[in-house]
Design goal:
With 157 residues, the chain is an alpha+beta fold. The protein has a single domain, classed as Beta-Lactamase (2-Layer Sandwich). α1 runs antiparallel to α2 and α1 packs parallel to α4. Helices cover 33% and strands 25% of the residues. It has a six-stranded antiparallel beta sheet with strand order 3-2-1-6-5-4, sandwiched between helices. It has four helices and six strands.
Length: 157
C-alpha cells in the first residue's frame, strides 16, 4: 500500500493520470467500500488540492454523509435538493462554476465556490451515492474532471 500520493504532471490530464494509477493500486484487493471511499477522498483531496472531497450515500430518501476530507459538512441532503440531490435525482454529473448561481444550493461552507457531483450506481443501475468535490475557486471543474472522476468511481466495488 502506498504511504502517500505523489502527483506528477503539469496539465490536469497528466495529474489525473498520475493519480489514477496510484488510487488503483491503493484500493486493489480491498473489498470494503467504505475503506476504499475513505482512501479515494484522501487521495483526491491531497493529490489534487481540492477544498472538500466526500461521499454521500443513499439512505431512504436522503443522502447521508459518508467518508470525506475537508471541513465539517452537511450531514443529510434530501432527494432533489442542492447540487448533490440534483445529481442523484437526475442520475447525471452536475458541474457548477459558481455555487452562488445554483438554485437551491446548500451552503455547507461559505468558502466553496464551484462544485462537481457525480452519482455512482449499484448493480441494478440505481444511484447508491454521490461523489461531491468542492473548490474554493470559481470554475474549477470541467469535462476532464468528469472523465477521470468517473474512472475513479469504477474502482469502488
Amino acid at each position: 500500500m502506498a504511504e502517500n500520493i505523489q502527483i506528477h504532471g503539469n496539465t490536469k490530464e497528466e495529474k489525473y493520470e498520475s493519480l489514477l494509477s496510484q488510487v488503483t493500486a491503493l484500493v486493489q484487493g480491498e473489498t470494503d467500500q467504505i475503506a476504499n471511499m475513505a482512501n479515494i477522498c484522501a487521495a483526491l483531496k491531497h493529490g489534487m488540492d481540492f477544498f472538500w472531497v466526500g461521499f454521500y450515500l443513499v439512505k431512504g430518501e436522503q443522502l447521508v454523509l459518508g467518508p470525506f476530507q475537508g471541513p465539517v459538512a452537511c450531514t443529510r441532503i434530501n432527494f432533489g435538493k442542492g447540487v448533490c440531490g440534483t445529481a442523484w435525482k437526475n442520475k447525471t454529473t452536475v458541474i457548477v462554476d459558481d455555487v452562488n448561481q445554483f438554485p437551491g444550493h446548500i451552503a455547507c461552507s461559505a468558502l466553496s465556490k464551484s462544485e462537481i457531483v457525480l452519482p455512482f450506481f449499484g448493480k441494478e443501475d440505481n444511484v447508491i451515492g454521490v461523489l461531491d468535490i468542492d473548490s474554493d475557486n470559481f470554475s474549477t471543474f470541467d469535462h476532464t474532471d468528469e472523465i477521470y472522476l468517473t474512472r475513479i468511481l469504477t474502482l469502488i466495488h
